[in-house]
Amino acid sequence: MKISPKKVEMARQEPKVRVKNFNEVALGYSEEEAIEEAKRCLQCKKAPCTKACPVEVDIPGFIARIMENDYRGAIRKIKEKNLLPAMCGRVCPQEELCEKACTLSKKYEPVAIGRLERFAADWELEKGNPEVGQLPWPTGKRVAVVGSGPAGLSCAGDLAKLGHNVTIFEALHKPGGVLVYGIPEFRLPKDIVRSEVEYIHSLGVEVKTGYVIGKIYTLAELFSQGYQAIFLGIGAGLPKFMDIPGENLNGVYSANEFLTRTNLMKAYLFPEYDTPVKIGRRVAVIGGGNVAMDASRTALRLGAQQVFNIYRRSRKEMPARREEIQNAQEEGVEFRFLTDPTRILGNREGWVTGIECVKMELGEPDESGRRRPVPIRDSEFTIEVDIVVMAIGAGANPLLPSVTPDLKLNKWGYIVADEVTGKSSKEGVWAGGDIVSGAATVISAMGSGRRSAKAINQYLMEG
Prior knowledge:
alpha/beta, 16 strands, about 35% helix
């Protein structure tokens, strides 16, 4: 059979239409399209794609079932390793992981593994009542999971499937962590997050929202309540700023606040939801990652006439997914590459009026392997804006570690944990996801949660 050199395209909303709504941009495969794409898979015996997957999904296995019209079998195969497939099919950077390792990519475009995973997951959600399967006899062991982001959900789900009694403690009023407060509706619909959290709940996991661990309970108090192990998946939600003049002006947001107001608190539906968010005519978003793309595209949908994405390196060095950069460009985001802000300007009333920048050029590579940006002398210029969003990363929230003195941290404030097991310096406590690695991907957080679940199970059952 002749292999098509290109992936089957996935339908998307047209840029001029989608920029005026918060509906999902990518529309998914039809059954015919999914089968056609599945037939491109070479069914490699050694499966380099599976080895490149942080949660080790049997990729040829589930794709073979799609090719055979066995969609139930496909989702069962995925869920042997990944309990959150509808999310991963949408936001996992497959192009840097499984698809990059795809044998087909040596000559053609790789198999669209992420799109096929999404297809199988969406098929199950459309049918309703996802299969739970036979759960094991309860072990009587109790585990507390702090945080309901991808790391916490994966850890909790795996532990529940092993028979343990698991409770998730989430600080916000809705579970999902960064999946609900950080990623916009047009990229990851919140109904998808809700459905997959409900699936974790159906495995027997209790989810308690509004519990700020470190304030309501300390880790010692959780242990005193009968929990025998604790997993910390508290993320990295502390906003970072550039420490430049003018950052305290009205109209300067952290991306964390800007996206939380919009995504979790539904500011885009104001006044139906009583969450105002100020959007001016011209918005500057600082940063080159996926969060910066999310903030830029959100600002357009909220009604900004112009959105400038300011990034100090070139497009080649941008850490954002290529697909997200392309989407932003199609929707009208104006990129200012090799540009670095030096000062935010304001009026007498304390509101932003502009941002002063300097042009950059690329020098020698730094510790990240990317070429270091160097300011060009006498190249300063000003962009007139009335809103600035800082999307330059996030750090470790210090609340829980500050009341847990025997929890070892590194110099950046992240929890020190074993790379394989997630074991922390504190007896009975594991950690994973962004609070250990720093801001990373949803799938890498899930992988760390699964590895910790395996180690916690061994600790509980063997001591």
